[in-house]
Design goal:
The protein is of the alpha/beta class. The protein has helices at about 35-45, 60-70, 85-90, 120-130, 140, 165-175, 180-185, 200-210, 220-225, 245-255, 295-305, 325-335; strands at about 15-20, 25-30, 55-60, 75-80, 95-110, 120, 155-160, 200, 215-220, 230, 235, 240-245, 280-285. Helix content is about 30%, strand content about 20%. The strands form two sheets. Strands 1, 2, 3, 4, 5, 7, 8, 9, 10 and 13 form a ten-stranded mixed β-sheet that branches. A three-stranded mixed β-sheet has the order 6-11-12.
């Protein structure tokens, strides 16, 4: 298992990376917990590239990152859900979406004596709808022949704040289950079925709940599941094969995506026998015409590094690197930022 350079546990919400003892430019960002492992490693590595900047990143969830960007409280937001036209309509300037990572959302669980589990999307939807409540339910047992599943209550755990990971997860379930799509829907924040499971804040919050509660299950960014040594399920993909969220399976999923000029895209349950079905892209959100020239210059320089040289680092955290053609598109978009 690959290890993160910085600990992602203990409820850490603030990541401040001093990339030089005499840093002069402070760049503030906030948002995605999905991105946090990449930012942690990137900020440390970037110290050798530009010692004249300091990063202050608050891992508060994608919804929070979008909100603070709209208020111009931060220099950049980070989000695993793209902003809609409606959300951007009230912005004080044009917002650009800069893809930075692509990763899998793991379905982590705490089931003593069951190190390996297989699930399909419909079963997963019914678990979070509260229709499947025991681990030895025939819908689960039928996919796991020979596995001794206990008659233990299932405790679904979900994110409570506006979350891009929730966006990816509910987008997947909406593509699989008409009942989920009509009753719960697809958003960064949804009305979870009443009385079903528990809520927690942040990736570290849901992961912590599942580690502590036998019978619990959650959706969480893969790096958190790996770092905390959680068990996570192999999910049945559109081709009918059960796959784990490996780097190869996430890369295979990304290769199926159509990338539009504005980079706002998603690809739930993509086709192909080797893909992992619950994947998503995360973006850094920036204004095309930022107010502060010095901070903007430092941020653009960092983003150019992150989408090129930084992509060589992210596979160590099981993120799929952005393809070269997409990197080229992003660099052209960054050239449109004026300061």
């Amino acid at each position: 298992m690959k290890q993160l350079m910085l600990s992602l546990l203990g409820g850490a919400a603030l990541l401040a990376a001093q990339t030089g003892a005499n840093a002069q430019t402070l760049i503030n960002g906030a948002g995605s917990t999905f991105d946090y492992p990449a930012f942690a490693k990137w900020f440390a590595a970037y110290a050798k590239v530009d010692p004249g900047v300091q990063f202050n990143y608050q891992s508060i969830g994608s919804g929070g990152g979008q909100h603070l960007l709209l208020n111009r409280t931060v220099d950049f937001g980070a989000s695993d859900a793209y902003m809609t036209d409606q959300a951007m309509a009230g912005a004080p300037g044009k917002i650009l979406h800069v893809p930075v990572v692509c990763g899998g959302v793991a379905i982590a669980y705490n089931l003593p004596g069951v190190p390996h589990l297989k699930l399909d999307g419909r079963t997963l939807a019914n678990i979070f709808l509260g229709k499947i409540t025991k681990w030895n339910d025939p819908a689960i047992a039928g996919q796991n022949p020979g596995v001794q599943l206990p008659a233990m209550p299932i405790i679904p755990v979900h994110r409570t704040e506006g979350s891009g990971t929730t966006w990816i997860f509910t987008g997947y379930l909406s593509s699989i289950s008409p009942e989920w799509k009509s009753q719960v829907g697809h958003s960064v924040s949804v009305n979870w079925p009443s009385g079903v499971g528990l809520g927690a804040k942040g990736s570290e919050g849901v992961a912590g709940q599942v580690r502590q509660l036998p019978g619990a299950i959650c959706y969480v960014e893969l790096a958190y599941a790996i770092q905390t040594h959680m068990s996570y399920a192999a999910m049945k993909n559109a081709a009918g094969r059960y796959t784990l969220p490996t780097l190869e399976a996430v890369s295979a999923a990304l290769s199926t995506a159509h990338v539009p000029p504005d980079f706002r895209f998603e690809f739930p349950n993509p086709p192909g026998p080797k893909v992992y079905p619950i994947c998503g892209v995360s973006w850094v959100l920036v204004y095309q015409h930022p107010d502060d020239a010095k901070r903007a210059k430092g941020l653009v320089k960092f983003l150019r590094w992150a989408v090129t040289d930084g992509q060589k680092i992210t596979p160590s955290l099981d993120y799929a690197p952005l393809p070269p053609n997409v990197q080229k598109q992003i660099l052209a978009e960054l050239d449109t930022i004026t300061y």
